[in-house]
Amino acid sequence: MVQDELTVRRGTPSLVAPARETPRESKPLSDLDDQNCMRIYLVGIYAFRGNASKQGVDPAVVVRGALAEALVHYYPLAGRLREEAGRKLVVDCAGQGVAFVEADANMALDDLGEVRYPPFPRSEEFVYDDHVYMANLPPGLLLPEIIGQPLLYVQVTRFMCGGFIVGTRTCHCLTDGSGVAQFLKSVGELARGADSPSVPPVWSRDIFNAREPPCPSFPHPEFQEPAGGDDRLMYTPPHELERVEFSFGPEAIAALHSRAAPGKPASRFDLVAACLWRSRTAALGYAPGDEVRCGMPVDARGKRPADFGREIPKGFYGNAIACTVACCTAEELCGRDLGYAVGLVREAKATVTYEYMQSLADRMVLEGRPVPEAKRTFTVSDLSNVGLEDVDFGWGNAVYGGPPMNALYQLPGGATFFRRRKNGSGEEETYGAIYLPKDCVARYMKEVEALTTTITETALRARY
């Protein structure tokens, strides 16, 4: 079979409520949870191969039962959102339930083609979506209505080979990527016979609320329009964009390190983000004085309490991320060495402390929950250590787990996700993709190649 012959037949959708009585209460979200930019659904695809020990076991029945058990512990996910004064979001927890649908595909999982890496083939067939979309938005912008709607949608699609796919849509206001992974791992544990999740969920949304009174203590340039002219990327129609994949193995990382930080430590993320930001900027041909940015969501869970200023409770599944930006002019970024870009990326990440996140919450309350500025901003998000592939409902770990794409053009300016995998030689590589206007691709590829080509020790000595 080929992909074009795929047929997925969905059953009748229903609601899955918590398996037992849960508290009836209202729970306010944090001032980071209810940002306007979080009012979307995070899409996930989790693919599993058949397992001989599970012959005759219906994965949809298993997932549905474990989901009901998990909602006893994560009962706010079964609730509904309402909006109070100042666009403050509150979850009304009354056990309303999450949306669930079973489906069947007319082929084997392997007939889809390569399912280990994004983009995941025909992903739209495996994710249930009956959302009502908001009206009166700018042309081309579709945002789902989240008020009064299910906060989680789950579709289980069975394949003829015994494999299956679990597709999810999770309201971003309730959780971030790490929180989604925590929840789905809990569902998996319960599906495999556990009495309760090994990591109990923690609400504690008050830790990311605005101070009283709000007093922003950081400038937060991510909300300010960058200086300079227009950004052609934001106005390029999707059919004129080309998706360009990248993969950075040990040799490429070594070459980047030799240019950016010889003899000094540098993370893979910093090196790859700086390389792509610089190459993309050069390819898009911005004016020398145009301000360009690299935007990065930073997860507070990955920071040491000594550096961050507070310990995030284990089991916290709310939004613990803040966006920060590295900023400079196009001339500075492309006219100086790669180490300059790496330094800017590293410094921007280091600004995200607990005080920074409090300042962000303060600004949300004072300024009507603004959204980050996308103009001339290259947004990168590292999903390498989130653990989305570790979800296991009893058939073994997912052969694929995470967003169906490794780059998005739907967001203004686009967004890129970093992932890691083993290459044919068993070496770890960082991979992903970006979208560019078609006439910029050749220049971009040339810039990346120049930065990832190993330079000789003689040239290094001459340069440094």
From TrEMBL:
<dbReference type="GO" id="GO:0016747">
    <property type="term" value="F:acyltransferase activity, transferring groups other than amino-acyl groups"/>
</dbReference>
<dbReference type="InterPro" id="IPR050898">
    <property type="entry name" value="Plant_acyltransferase"/>
</dbReference>
<comment type="similarity">
    <text>Belongs to the plant acyltransferase family.</text>
</comment>
<protein>
    <submittedName>
        <fullName>Uncharacterized protein</fullName>
    </submittedName>
</protein>
<dbReference type="InterPro" id="IPR023213">
    <property type="entry name" value="CAT-like_dom_sf"/>
</dbReference>
<keyword id="KW-0808">Transferase</keyword>
<dbReference type="Pfam" id="PF02458">
    <property type="entry name" value="Transferase"/>
</dbReference>
